[in-house]
TrEMBL record:
<keyword id="KW-1003">Cell membrane</keyword>
<dbReference type="InterPro" id="IPR000390">
    <property type="entry name" value="Small_drug/metabolite_transptr"/>
</dbReference>
<keyword id="KW-1133">Transmembrane helix</keyword>
<dbReference type="GO" id="GO:0005886">
    <property type="term" value="C:plasma membrane"/>
</dbReference>
<dbReference type="InterPro" id="IPR037185">
    <property type="entry name" value="EmrE-like"/>
</dbReference>
<protein>
    <submittedName>
        <fullName>4-amino-4-deoxy-L-arabinose-phosphoundecaprenol flippase subunit ArnF</fullName>
    </submittedName>
</protein>
<feature type="transmembrane region" description="Helical">
    <location>
        <begin position="72"/>
        <end position="92"/>
    </location>
</feature>
<feature type="transmembrane region" description="Helical">
    <location>
        <begin position="38"/>
        <end position="60"/>
    </location>
</feature>
<keyword id="KW-0472">Membrane</keyword>
<feature type="transmembrane region" description="Helical">
    <location>
        <begin position="98"/>
        <end position="115"/>
    </location>
</feature>
<keyword id="KW-0812">Transmembrane</keyword>
<dbReference type="GO" id="GO:0022857">
    <property type="term" value="F:transmembrane transporter activity"/>
</dbReference>
Amino acid sequence: MPPLFLILLSVILGSGAQIAFKIGVLHAAPLKFDIPGVIALLGSPYIIGGLMAFAASFLLWLKILATVPLSYAYPMVSLGYVFIFLYSWRYLGENLPALRVAGLVLIVTGIFFIARS
């Protein structure tokens, strides 16, 4: 598989994991960080799914690091900001402030130049 595809898949999985974690903690309210609370949290299907997506992202990232220069691959992780922003808007109902959108456009522009190098 092309390295860029693996990088994008890793970033998408990592971003999806963060959204799953957020949904998991929102459903766990009131959240308590004592032993019973953490055990209950770890039993959440959202948290379990997030951990699985995060583990898959991590394993893909190791594969990427073995095959692609770090100076090329690591800046692509910035796409996580874009995916989190879009997922948060779509699945969590968060706002799309114009200043954030402008910042994301700058991030995507920078990643475009890195990908072309």
